[in-house]
Amino acid sequence: MRLMRGMIHVVTGAVALAFGLPGACISSEDAFVDGRLERLCTESIPLCAVRASCTVDEGSYVSSAFPGGQRWLVRSEVDGERARVRLKLTGLGWPGTELVLQAYTPDCAGLDALRLTGDEVARALGDDDVLEHELELGPRGDHLVEIFSDMSAGFLVTIDVR
């Protein structure tokens, strides 16, 4: 009888893990994306004389890696909205010396940017390796949002328009 009870506990624990029931662990990456769907970003969308790799919205996230940059299309429905960009590092190899995040107006003439250099990058990321910043989008329409860094790291990005 004792053996049977032990087997029942093992099976119940396996079922709890498989279905995410209480007692199961959630990674910090899963908590960060919060049920959003991953965009593979393999498109080529002409925007501001360059190409965006996909459209990012409130229901999606992007997984990629530095060094280098990424470009995305973000839509705003109302003038004066802001894009809340959240970046989470998923494996830091080298901290780098700069991080640039910028959003262009639909006519590509205006831009709001965050430029961090040196120690500012580490301070902005904090202990949880998450950076959160809002960029002004200006008039409604399609906006080019870019990120660039020379660090060596994987990352996740979510963008919410408000």
Biggest beta-sheet profile = 7 strands, mixed
User: Which architecture name of the largest domain does CATH use?
Assistant: Sandwich
**Number of domains in the coordinates?**
2
Model regions low in confidence, pLDDT < 50 over at least 5 residues: 1-18
Overall form: globular
Q: Quaternary state, please? A: single chain
CATH topology of the largest domain, what is it called?
Answer: Jelly Rolls
Assigned CATH class of the largest domain: Mainly Beta
SSE series: HHEEEEEEEHEE
**Helix content range of the residues, please?**
10-25%
- Class from secondary-structure proportions: alpha+beta
- What fraction strand? over 45%
Average pLDDT level: 89
List descriptors:
two-stranded antiparallel ribbon, 7-stranded mixed sheet, Jelly Rolls, 2 domains, 3 helices, alpha+beta
How would you characterize this protein structure?
By secondary structure, the chain is α+β, with helices and mostly antiparallel strands. It has 2 domains: 1-26; 34-161, Jelly Rolls, CATH 2.60.120. It is globular and about 40 Å long. The longest helix is centred in the first third of the chain and has 18 residues, at 2-19. The model is unreliable at 1-18 (pLDDT under 50). Strand 6 and strand 7 form a beta hairpin. The protein contains 3 helices and 9 strands; from the N terminus they run ααβββββββαββ. It has helices spanning 2-19, 28-33, 119-125; strands at 37-39, 45-47, 50-52, 60-76, 81-94, 98-104, 111-117, 130-138, 141-161.
